[in-house]
Design a protein that fits this description.
Elements: E1 2-4, E2 10-12, H1 15-31, H2 37-43, H3 50-62, E3 66-67, E4 76-77, H4 79-89, H5 97-109, H6 114-129, E5 132-136, E6 144-153, E7 156-163, E8 168-174, H7 181-195, H8 200-212, H9 220-236, E9 242-245, H10 257-272, H11 274-283, E10 290-293, E11 305-313, E12 319-328, H12 333-351
Helix pairs in contact: 1-3, 1-4, 2-3, 5-6, 5-12, 6-12, 7-9, 8-9
């Protein structure tokens, strides 16, 4: 394995260095603690003295792959070291058939409602990975295939919007008390005649102008339903909305004050969402699972944290969103990468 050291010198790691470095990362992921030479001598499959191990660790530190948090402590992998491990040393684990069935069942149980499916998938992924789960919901700017108003009870109705790429969005709205079913049917027919094959934005001004000038054939109650539905869509049309679930997992093993401050910074980043959305936009330009480790990417400035995320596609194989997890840099990459990858594929299959 070839690496570039701090001075820009390309160096090849020999088998002994790879074993020691790989074990340091594995132990760090497991314990979160600095790894010393005596611990390594007990864990390695080859017999090496602590002195030999220390010499190798010093070489790895010179290459920028390890660092010592304290003078007399063991070593921890740097962000560059974790990147090297993920890209070149790690062997991915596989999902069990039970895990696959669990993911399939949970996502499919949410039905065709896109909001429910994405929220459920994110919560599930968060629980399995023991990290915060996040998903970038797709923009609903596709042409519409069908719209329908469904009565739910006195004063309430559901509007169902289905796009031509198969996405379904449901929203509940308030309607006049005692509204007859015929008014909902009339509103449904009116909007289907004007919106089918067009986006909401394309038809909005035309419909609003027609309603304002009373050129429509709708009766007063049906017109109020249409206006309420348009207002609901206007306030809720997605522009790449970010959904975050399971932030509490990030506090599960916080033991030091500095770790708590780091997690608080991460919560602030997730709350503003802007930086995370920018990274998820980058994922839309690539295929497969993307891994952001620590502060190696200038858009993700929270040190000590990593994000694993994968895009999902619609039936035309267009990337419409992304799903993944965010957590400390010592997350279990070997397990979480296939979890994220499989979940994104299940969502793509359901949307398609």
């Amino acid at each position: 394995m070839v690496v570039t050291g701090r001075g820009g010198i390309v160096t090849e790691l020999d088998e002994r260095s790879r074993q020691i470095f790989g074990q340091i990362v594995e132990t760090y992921v497991e314990t979160g603690e600095p790894v010393g030479s005596r611990t390594l001598s007990r864990r390695l499959t080859v017999a090496l003295s602590p002195a030999t191990i220390r010499n190798v660790m010093a070489d790895l530190e010179d290459l920028g792959l390890l660092y010592a948090p304290h003078t007399s402590a063991g070593r921890l992998p740097t962000d560059a070291g974790l990147r090297l491990f993920v890209n070149g040393l790690m062997e991915l684990g596989g999902l069990t058939s039970e895990e696959r069935r669990h993911i399939d069942g949970r996502v499919q149980a949410a039905g065709k409602n896109l909001d429910d499916m994405l929220s459920d998938a994110t919560s599930l992924l968060s629980g399995l990975a023991r990290c915060a789960g996040l998903v970038l919901a797709p923009k609903t700017d596709s042409a519409l295939k069908h719209i329908e108003f469904v009565p739910l009870g006195p004063g309430r109705a559901m509007v169902i919007m289905i796009t031509e790429n198969g996405l379904v969005e449901n929203r509940v709205l308030e309607v006049p008390q005692g509204l007859p079913p015929s008014a909902l049917a009339e509103a449904t027919n009116y909007l289907n005649a004007r919106l089918t094959g067009r986006t909401l934005e394309e038809a909005r001004s035309e419909i609003q102008e027609e309603l304002d000038s009373h050129r429509s054939t709708l009766d007063d109650l049906a017109q109020r339903v249409v206006e309420t539905g348009m207002a609901t869509w206007s306030g809720g049309t997605r522009g790449g909305e970010l959904i975050v679930r399971g932030q509490s997992h990030l506090l599960a093993d916080v033991t030091a004050l500095e770790d708590l401050e780091r997690i608080r910074d991460l919560f602030d980043t997730l709350e503003t969402k802007e930086q995370v959305l920018r990274i998820l936009d980058m994922v839309n330009l690539a295929e497969g699972v993307q891994i952001f480790i620590g502060a190696e990417n200038e858009l993700f400035s929270v040190s000590g944290c990593s994000m694993i995320v994968a895009p999902y596609q619609n039936s035309r194989e267009e990337i419409v969103g992304a799903i993944g997890v965010i957590g400390p840099t010592r997350i279990n990459y070997r397990r979480i990468i296939p979890l994220v990858d499989y979940t994104s594929k299940v969502i793509s299959r359901m949307i398609g």
